[in-house]
Amino acid sequence: MIRSNSRDPARSTGPWSQTSIVRYAGRLMAAMLACVTWSSTASAACVWTDLVNANTRAAVVNRTAPRVHFVQDSGPGCPGASAACQLRAYVVAGDVVLAGPARNGYTCAGLQGPRGTSTIEWLPTAALTMAPPAAQTPSDWTGHWYAPEQDIVIKATGGGMLSVTGDATWGMSAWRAEHGSVHVGTLNGVTRPVGGVLSFTEGDDRTMPYTSGDEFNCKIRMIRRGPYLLVRDNDNCGGANVSFSGFYVRQRPVSAKRVAP
Description:
Elements: H1 18-33, E1 57-61, E2 67-71, E3 86-92, E4 96-103, E5 106-112, E6 118-124, E7 128-130, H2 133-136, E8 143-147, E9 150-158, E10 161-170, H3 174-178, E11 183-191, E12 198-202, E13 207-208, E14 218-225, E15 228-233, E16 246-250
Antiparallel strand pairs: 1-4, 1-7, 2-3, 4-5, 5-6, 8-9, 8-16, 9-10, 10-11, 12-13, 12-14, 14-15, 15-16
């Protein structure tokens, strides 16, 4: 059985039981640490926060080689061209990646693969060509967007409004599901994009502007880059460790999927 997220206070004999105090303190700490703005500060390593921000650009892998391997930044001289830095994951000409900060001839890049797995590591900057301006901020939002343990569905509701629903989990595995230890979260709102940003705060019975509510409300912001949907939340949209933050790609229609002979 999968354990659902609950926002109800812990049952206790008084308003300030040990359980409720611990829960409140945990939520307060999460709110203080949550990054709800589009930070542009790059980390020393290449991590998802380097890619899910307003400075990220969509880039196309050019034809410098049949395949270009991602490289890691751990180890002497990494990221670099040595075999010790090279990873098994690679891109080919025409692939579209998210391009973040650059360092010593390498660019922090992210790719969502066809099997739903994501890679976030370094690629040679020379192997990338920035996509044209029109591809950097697409205006089409609708579709079923997915990432590992995350799903968001965006539908047009008329009058320029969009409905946003989502489900996310943390710790999904057969063992954790059987023992009821999978944490879950949901997302639900109706809003419209403003200035290339789709954002809102989830209220108890209505959708509120992003700036409304308090730190305990679920707040979410989204932008488009190339084929990707970039999402940041405030870590209050589900159970412990559950987040909708990350980068997503659209689920292809069944008719468009490649069928093995």
